[in-house]
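@channel sequence for tomorrow's demo:
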Amino acid sequence: MNKYLEDLVKLSKFDTQISMFEPQIENEKAKLATFVETAEAIKVSINNTYVLIDEVKSKRTKNNIHLAELKTKLDDIAKKHKEVQNEKELKALQLEEEIAKEQISFANEEIARLDEITEERESQLKEFQEKLAQEEESIKDIQIAVDNQIEDINKQRNVVYQQRSELLEKVDSKILTFYEKIRRWAKDTAVVPVKKQACYGCHMKINDKTYAEVVKSDEIINCPHCGRILYKEDETVEA
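structure tokens (generated this afternoon):
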């Protein structure tokens, strides 16, 4: 294979490797992000539950105040019974007493209902807090694993960067400029193999004459369809 072409193939493979490192890092970060999102969602549920508990307790307090007022009213009615002068006044007091007792009964039922809701919400709150503790523990473990993985990826990337830098020192500047021009639009497919007599970049079949020149590898050949640099892989690699 032509030395310049060989250098471009190596350079292209280095660039492809480098491009793959960032998605790998993002993928590792995404693993952690999933657990963080879950933890944040649980925190929102905890805050909402606190708000609901406060609302229920506030309603209970109002009912207690109302209940106290009704009991005071009953005491007043009891005192008025001693001052009743006729049957009409007695019936009015009895009706007022009956209504007050019904209201007391309803207030007690409402307080019992609110207590059940509070107990249920506090049970949910405890479950959320336990889940949050578990998630936060998982986040710690995953953070360590992700950090270690990213560190390994960065080490690999640094090795590839070093190898690429060493190669660049040997590559002819004109050839490098030519490669970079194609890479601006072709990205990591600036240099592609020919497989089954087709460009592996645009997947268009190339004519016999161009294919023969690619097989010889004496010169740098561009795809007649897309302009990418072509090369023929060893049969074992292609297989």
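heads up for whoever presents: The chain has a mean pLDDT of 93.
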